[in-house]
Amino acid sequence: MKITVNVWRQKDATAKGAMVTYPLESVDEHMSFLEMLDVLNEQLTIDGEDPVAFDSDCREGICGTCGVVINGIPHGPEVTTTCQLHMRTFSDGDVIDIEPWRAGAFPVVKDLVVDRGAFDRIIQAGGYISAPTGAAVEANNIPVPKVDADHAFEAATCIGCGACVAACPNGSAMLFTAAKITHLGLLPQGQPERDSRVLGMVEQHDAEGFGGCTNIGECTAACPKGIPLDVISRLNRDLLGALSREAIGS
Ligand code: SF4
Ligand code: FES
């Protein structure tokens, strides 16, 4: 396939960025999107130009580092991660726009790389348990209703990629935050810090400059792991309960 890519180039966090056009003469349809960028970077290196900076680690849809906006859609036209998107999704002659996540709380570091440290700080504000879990316990030793186990597992599949933020017109990270709160809040081990978790994580979410949720739903449409919007309802219920208990001092 012959394709043309328009790539956001930005030297560093303070430089002014711009889209730069590169033609690619020989792209295999079985390449992943990141392998196509690898080919572009080999070409740029041979030509003595600075390769395009982009993040990746697992290239298996697990680590959440690789996200970019492709033709205006976080992770591109398929419901998957950028690393799991393949060039067969596109057609010979296509022109593809590639940009970094656009969100105030995710500042651009270079080219397609953004700083997602805000997510780490939200997790530090409460996304953990303090119960000593020890070695893996015998299955079914701690009874958890199947419906709760399934919902907790679904929420736990969030890989922290940030596509929900990039897709949201408000730049909200509520889907991410709510997935973590739901995952831990549905399990017995997550109960001791349930109130402090939701209070701390929501406070940090707001302090990082993410916007508020207005139930638009773009986040869940862009999420490569299909995290449903109802996790945000659970966050809101937990938050109201924690604020009420805080107000009456119980
Ligand atoms: S909720 Fe979905 S889109 Fe948002 S960080 Fe988690 S996996 Fe990525
Ligand atoms: S490189 Fe790990 S999810 Fe894409």
Write up this protein.
A five-stranded mixed sheet has the order 2-1-5-3-4. A two-stranded antiparallel ribbon has the order 6-7. It contains eight helices and seven strands. The protein is an alpha+beta fold and 250 residues long. Helices cover 35% and strands 11% of the residues. The chain folds into two domains: 108 residues, Beta-grasp domain (Ubiquitin-like (UB roll)), CATH 3.10.20; 133 residues, Fumarate Reductase Iron-sulfur Protein, Chain B, domain 2. The longest helix is centred in the C-terminal third of the chain and has 19 residues. Bound molecules: iron/sulfur cluster and FE2/S2 (inorganic) cluster. Iron/sulfur cluster binds next to α4 and α5. The site of iron/sulfur cluster has 14 residues, from α4 and α5.
Tell me the structural class. Answer: alpha+beta
**Order of strands across the widest beta sheet?**
2-1-5-3-4
- The helicity comes to 25-40%
Q: How many strand units?
A: 7
- Following the backbone from N to C, one meets helices and strands in this order, namely EEHEEEEEHHHHHHH
Radius of gyration, in angstroms, nearest whole number: 20 Å
Name of the CATH superfamily of the largest domain: Alpha-helical ferredoxin
Morphology call: elongated
Question: What is the topological layout?
Answer:
Layout: E1 3-9, E2 18-24, H1 33-46, E3 69-70, E4 73-74, E5 95-99, E6 108-110, E7 113-114, H2 117-124, H3 146-156, H4 163-167, H5 174-185, H6 194-207, H7 218-222, H8 230-248
Parallel strand pairs: 1-5
Antiparallel strand pairs: 1-2, 3-4, 3-5, 6-7
Helix pairs in contact: 2-6, 3-5, 5-6, 5-8, 6-8
The structure holds iron/sulfur cluster and FE2/S2 (inorganic) cluster.
